[in-house]
Design a protein that fits this description.
alpha/beta, Multidrug-efflux Transporter Regulator, Chain: A, Domain 2, Methyltransferase, Methionine Synthase (B12-binding Domains), Chain A, domain 1, Rossmann fold, 3 domains, five-stranded parallel beta sheet, 11% strand, elongated, disordered N terminus
């Protein structure tokens, strides 16, 4: 399209980059890959860009900064962009500025599937803020953001699994050196039989050690009989069962009821699924924050 500067007062790509906060190289890359922003042509043949492109490019930049893929952000509708930016703004307001920047950096490494870089970032943050703040102020918001991005289609299932697995591996390496000395209390930490994901259980193990309690960590997919044997042999004070949020409530309730019958004089609690009915002598611990307070009372 040929225009004159008098018709729409277009600007150069450098001016466009400065106005929307997106580097020139990135604008060219988006144009080549996604067909936006498209330049117009002066009568002289020079490429120029309409000022009307600036608001949309600013929104695209904000979405990318929030962790969305450029391929998604550039092609999103105006209505979808406004809705997602509102949601991202509300989520960010719940965290402090430094934490938001930290988590955004982690999400960028997830998008790149840079496992070594993500593990190093976790380690640096752990050493800087400590175990408890790492879990509550960084790891949990990070996991919520990963889940939110996956639900919106901003990242793939593979990215979501990758993000969780790298964190789970990192946490598993952190709590064993924190184990307390002899003469302490013990609790069993296990997932229901058939439950294969133990990320929440790894965070529970860290909190347990911070309270001077030894976790007898049985991990995912633990048969009921093995839990009873371990709890009895180790003379533990309690058994904590991690459930999936999507586990079948009736099946989980039956598992816990059978487990309760096999544990004599040992407290039994569970977390992870709030759809189970109330059960006699079985405690429900809704969140990790609640589990942290529960450990205070145990000690």
């Amino acid at each position: 399209m040929t225009i004159t500067s008098k018709q729409s007062n277009p600007i150069s790509i450098g001016g466009l980059a400065a106005a929307c906060g997106v580097p020139v190289e990135t604008l060219r890359n988006w144009e080549n890959r996604y067909g936006f922003p498209l330049p117009e042509r002066l009568e002289s043949g020079h490429r120029r860009y309409a000022l009307e492109l600036i608001p949309r490019l600013r929104k695209i930049r904000m979405l990318v900064d929030a962790g969305y893929k450029p391929s998604f952000a550039v092609t999103a509708s105006d209505e979808e962009m406004d809705r997602l930016l509102l949601c991202s703004s509300e989520a960010a307001s719940e965290r402090s500025g430094p934490d938001t920047a930290q988590i955004s950096g982690w999400l960028a490494l997830v998008e790149q599937m840079d496992g070594a870089g993500l593990a190093r970032a976790f380690s640096r943050d752990w050493n800087t803020v400590g175990a408890r703040r790492f879990i509550f102020e960084h790891a949990l918001p990070y996991l919520r953001d990963v889940g939110c991005l996956w639900e919106r289609g901003a990242i793939s299932v593979a990215h979501e699994h990758f993000a969780s697995e790298v964190l789970q591996t990192f946490l598993a390496e952190q709590w064993r050196p924190l184990l307390p000395v002899a003469g302490h209390r013990r609790i069993v930490l296990a997932n229901q039989e058939g439950e294969l994901h133990s990320l929440g259980l790894q965070m529970a193990a860290i909190l347990t050690t911070l309270h001077g309690v030894e976790p007898v960590f049985l991990g995912p997919n633990t048969p009921l009989r093995d839990i009873i044997v371990a709890a009895t042999a180790q003379k533990v004070d309690a058994v904590i069962i991690g459930l999936s949020a999507v586990s079948d409530p009736a099946r989980s309730a039956s598992f816990l009821t059978d487990l309760r019958q096999g544990l004599v004089g040992i407290r039994l609690a569970f977390g992870g699924n709030d759809r189970l009915p109330a059960m006699s002598n079985i405690e429900y611990i809704p969140t990790l924050e609640d589990f942290d307070r529960w450990l205070d009372l145990l000690v």
